[in-house]
Amino acid sequence: MAILRQNSTYWVLPMKKDFKVPLHLLSLNNIPGGVKMACGSVVLAVLLWTSLQSGIQFTMTSPIDIQVPILSRNYDAYINSSAGWPVLYQQQLKHSIQKRAKISGLPHVDDDALNTYVKFIESNLGRETRMETSLIRSNTKVQQKTPQHGQLIASSPSAEALRHGKDALIATKASLYISHKHCQWYGLDGDECGAFVMSMKMNRTSLGDRCAAQYSKNADCSGRYRAIDGSCNHVNDKTWGMVHTSYLRLLAPQYADGIQEPRKPVKGKSLPSARLVSTGVIRDRDSADNSRTMSLVQWTEFIEHDLVFTPVMKMVHSGNSIMCCRQDGSFLAPRYIHPACMPITVLNNDPFYSKYRQRCMNYVRSLRAMRPDCHFGPAEQMNQATHYLDGSMIYGTTDERAWSLRTFSNGQLSTETKNGQEYLPQADKPLQQCQVSSNTSACYKSGDIRVNLHPQLVIMHTLWLREHNRIAAKLALLNPHWDDETLYQEARRIVIAEIQHITYNEWLPLVLGSKYAKKLGLQLKKTGFSSDFAEDVNPSISNSFATAAMRFRMSMMAGTIGLFDEDRNTNKSLQLKDNFNQPATIEEPEHLDSLVRGLATQRSQKRGLYYDSDLIQMLYKTSGQFGMDILSLDIQRGRDHGLPGYNHYRKHCGLPAAKSFNGFLDVMSKSTVAKLKSVYAHPDDVDLLIGGMSEHAIDDSVLGFTFRCIIGEQMLRTKKGDRFFYDVPNQQNSFTEAQLGEIRKSTLARVFCDTADDIKMMQPNAFIVPSGSNGMVSCSNTNGIKQLSLSPWKQALVKSS
């Protein structure tokens, strides 16, 4: 309950979810003054005590219009039901807000007041120019060729993202102001204030038009092909899945203040330092997987970059980078701390960083996004990728980027030829986009700025660039009457279909487990068309998928990258720590083929609480003795994004919420639970990433119960919510059945064979180590490793859009 005072009248406001009786009015008007004061104090004390004892519960759901399956152990009802999907989150949200607003009786906030608040925040934001100018003068920014520079490359925002992010920042600050002014005074906690603020529209403020323009339903969707920015996929919701829109939420965010501050522990003031958690639970130990290759890890990253890109904030007025620690690793003086900073504390006794007197690890908060419903409310984060599996890491997410990657001749993507082989084109600003020492050093440009992060990722980008150009060249021979635009779009369409087929046919059964994937209806059809697409399924990427679940791959990476010869032997290797954002090694003689063979030969590490030291203390290292810790950064990002703790997600997925740490023993070992107990004070405090990584793998899946649930849910919507998914019929540009038959021959092994420099042999399933049932086959053997034929595309008179 909450207390609202009007003059000398106190209103008792019950806030329980199921409360249905009228409000009680306690009037003190007829009581003498002295007694009135005493009674008033007693009443307030009693009511506040009762409120704290009973707790104030607010049920909130995602602000995004979406239908989400409840993927739990009892999901048979979902799969077999005629209704198919639960109630829309948007409807649940509206009902919740209407009910809470009616019960609470909080003062109405009119449009004039909201407009005043927004103008006040805009004015205050303008005053930050002085502070940012001071930071620039003091050189408090990210320096090139440092670990923080590598960190910035991996999360660099585009100019358009920054423009949208500034509007979202104003909306968040205005929401916080509304919260402080209109509901915290009445005894409402953070979550309740967040729900109260979420009921307010911004349409009558200066933000309203800008939000409406970003989420406009009046976009021109007359094009024949998939839009480069992800728009126009759904007839009624044209901005679903579009670049620069917010992530979706499976669970309501948990912010300490209901709007933006990181969640608090059950007891105490703050959660344990992300670095303390990392050192407390992680061990660096070789733990190779028995059957899965590094291809599985690399494909996970490749499609993650297709679906997910979380940019960070920059200085609002100058666009300069933000640095949250001093260059020597100590904390900044308060006057030099930018509001976007959320640095990670490194303790004095840290087992590694204490040797170098590092106390502060840089972390800049993620760029905000406007809420799709154009309401005020808790902070949401932006996806700088499209939310579709559409090859955006190859082709870009804006027309400007896409055009910069094309030759505009015969449908080809731009390349640079070196030693007779095609490579990605040189980056426009190598010193900014790589951790290199000169503008002449190799640094590549692709659809995604993260292309250069490490050699195996560069290899994957290079092969798929070549695959596009190979297909475009063959289409040009088959259809000499096609112009450049048609050749480019048709080649792009086929490449995207190949990526989708490989993801759902080869990768997903290994990650989720074949039985679970089949149970969810994610098994692809072998012939004909699919009826999966649903207009009312929002494919937008969930924050928990992007920020936690897909990060499982980091524990499977190896610090030593093997270089394999044609006999699959290795006597050379690369160290990951020496090759972050320095991709020139792939141009060394035979290195490209050796790295490709390595992807198909070297065993991945097992998924779990074992991370290679190159990732937890050498990340983005250049010439220094240390780098950053990927796990600490990932934990901090989850808190920045307001992700509820692991216990909430395991309950969402069908497991009981643990009341004590021993409640985790249903999915974890005793030793793992002991580690969690040593760093966290309460089971509700455990971060989603750590809890998910702590679970043991289920059946033939790479994942544990909770991450399997989150990733399965997302991949279901990614397919069902995509009008242009390759096997969807009756669309303007659907494939024919003959063309589908060829698309279904796609394998990663065939792409390796067709696009590497000179690989002779490959196993049919590159995600699995070579064995008796997955033996080596000549690349020229198109029966052993099937090859897509483009003959069904001959004379297909397709007009360009």
Describe this structure in words.
37% of the residues lie in helices and 7% in strands. It is mainly alpha-helical. The protein has a domain at 1-57. Strand 1 (2-6) and strand 2 form a beta hairpin. Mean pLDDT is 87; it is low at 1-93. It is found in: Secreted. One of its GO terms (biological process) is response to oxidative stress.
How much of the polypeptide forms β-strand, as a percent range? 5-15%
Total beta strand runs: 16
Major sheet attributes = 3 strands, antiparallel
- Poorly predicted residue ranges: 1-93
| Cα gyration radius (Å) | 27 Å
For the residues shown, what is the average pLDDT? 87
Helix/strand class: mainly alpha
Q: How many angstroms separate the termini?
A: 59 Å
Number of helices: 26
What does the secondary structure layout of this molecule look like, with pairings?
Elements: E1 2-6, E2 9-13, E3 24-27, H1 33-54, H2 76-80, H3 89-104, H4 111-137, H5 147-153, H6 159-182, H7 190-198, H8 206-214, E4 245-246, H9 274-281, E5 288-293, H10 294-307, E6 344-345, E7 360-361, E8 368-369, E9 380-383, H11 392-395, H12 399-404, E10 416-418, E11 421-423, H13 430-433, H14 455-478, H15 484-512, H16 514-519, H17 543-547, E12 560-564, E13 570-575, H18 591-601, E14 603-605, H19 613-616, H20 630-640, H21 646-652, H22 670-679, H23 688-694, H24 705-720, H25 737-743, H26 748-755, E15 761-762, E16 777-778
Helix pairs in contact: 4-6, 6-7, 6-8, 9-20, 9-22, 10-14, 10-15, 10-18, 14-15, 14-26
Keywords: Heme, Iron, Metal-binding, Oxidoreductase, Peroxidase, Secreted, Signal
Subcellular location: Secreted
Protein name: Peroxidase
